[in-house]
User: What shape does this take?
Amino acid sequence: MMGVAALAASEASTLPSALDFSGNLWIGVALKVVAIAAFFLVAPLVVGYMEHKVMAHQQARFGPMDVGPHGTLQLVADGVKFIQKEAVTPRAADRWVFGMAPGVSLLAALLVFLVVPLAPGVWAEDLELGLFYVLAASSVGVVGVLMAGWASANKFSLIGGVRAAAQLIAYELPMVLAAVAVALQAGTLSLAGIVEAQAGFMILGTDINLWYVFPQFVGFVIFFMAALAELARPPFDMPIADSELVFGYLTEYSGIRFGMFLLSEYAGMVGFSAIMAVLYLGGWQIAPGVTTPGCDGITDCNLVGTLLGAGVMLGKIAALSFTMIWVRVTYPRLREDQLQRLSWLALIPLSLALIAAVAVGKVVF
Assistant: This one.
């Protein structure tokens, strides 16, 4: 963490930040913490409610309807229930590791939001190595899963934790390689810089602007599939696999600890959707080649342009989260051997080929 702080201080981007309070450090830090915490608590609840209702409608059900208008307060009621329920610790469990595991998973999801740009100038920190930072921070969540599986003193939990570690090893590689292809094309590892680079990416010999999802659609699909595997979302939910492992690494968890794991999953959906929106969908840009009203260029925006850009970014996050839910409803769970073969024999070779193609394109054109 000290290294990350030093990096943030020494290599901050020159792009303007609406959350820059250099005149008063402590007020700036406090406001950033409040803003990140508010987004971290609200956005996952919205995605969780979306999952309840989208799955219900796609399966011809109603979903939650009784708590609040159209069931909008169901997850709030669930949170109150989690707080009130007793958090039971198995007698044979390692109490300290068992108790810390949900916090580790939750912290990993929270750290991603420190560098994600939501609108022109709206970010907590714009690190020069922001892309590698979010990839590293997101991978920490599996440590919490391993801690939960090992400390539960339950063979089903342990198998679930080991499966989660195997998934991380298999799918972290194609995710990082797909992200490297984007960084190679953009010429920067700054997330805000990648958004700016997409605004200046034109079809060869024309004035037609394109987002990176068009020349790197294969990389977008690879990153999306790897994100599902990192989150252990269906069809990559073998670490939970209720038909085989009861509830995997979550078997022994109850009360607020289980709620923290649930919150970290929904927060991970929001975080990975935000990263994909930045890398492939132009971030806060409305459309390729379209200047946001109230903005002079890609980063110099007034209040109206900033709010509009934030709305566009949130819309893209919602659309990608919806797609993750859609995939959950549509596809059955893979077998463990199928999951490993998909990564090692298909996604990793494709991502390596993508990097080679982008490198050749950069040199030739």
Notes: The longest strand covers residues 295-296. The chain has 13 helices and two strands. Strands lie at 295-296, 300-301. The two ends are 40 Å apart (CA to CA).
